[in-house]
Amino acid sequence: MVAYHDLYDCRVDQWQKAADDWVDLARRSSSACEDVRAQGKKPLDDHWADATGRQAGKRLEDLADRLESGGDIMKGVAMVLDALAHSMGFAQRTLFHAAELAGEHGLGIRDGRAVGAYTGAAPVGPNVPQNVPQNVRDAHTKELGDIATVNGLMDEALREAAQADAKASAELDKPAKTINVADTSQAHNEILVEASHVEFEMLREDIPVGKDPHLQRAWWDGLTPQQQKDLMRADPVTLADLSHAIGSTPR
Prior knowledge:
Number of domains: 2
Number of helices: 9
Distance between the termini: 38 Å
Strand order of the largest sheet: 1-2
Mean pLDDT: 83
Strand content: under 5%
């Protein structure tokens, strides 16, 4: 469960920094793997052909495989964190937009809900009494509509944040239990590929169909060029429905 102040105050940039750090670690692991194979395993095979040399070579090959697998697992972690940063960033921008809209309409935010001068909070009970002046009744009616709009945006932002948090948490638990993998095929074809699928699902679930054009444009501009191209290839029909808000889309 993600609360209003959790999302409003969260440091999305720290998730992006963590993703970048994991990418750097993955590169270092891959580089170490190449060094072990090129400067350790190969010279050993060329110049030490007895049983001891073969045993040492086997140990070096196992180390290289674990470094290669580790690199792929870390890339998977980075993919999930990158998607989490994007999803949380979009959810936070949606929440900020709701708060700005509340201010424009003279509403306040109390306990994560919009409140106003006439209603105090969005009512669920009786209608405005008939003896209330018409101008007050009109203001009350408008305020109810404004409150519903703001609360709808905040609910959507919190839903997006909770969804991204749950999906990322579940996916990050998996590599935490699969460290020191020696099977490079497992690391690449299972762990890394699955993480890439989760990354794409998280981005796809953020598509703001039917939402405020301002949010649709903010969502699109928050994607990297590669993410835009990937989503366009995977779901061109949905993105075409947003073209009036996001402008031209990559081909």
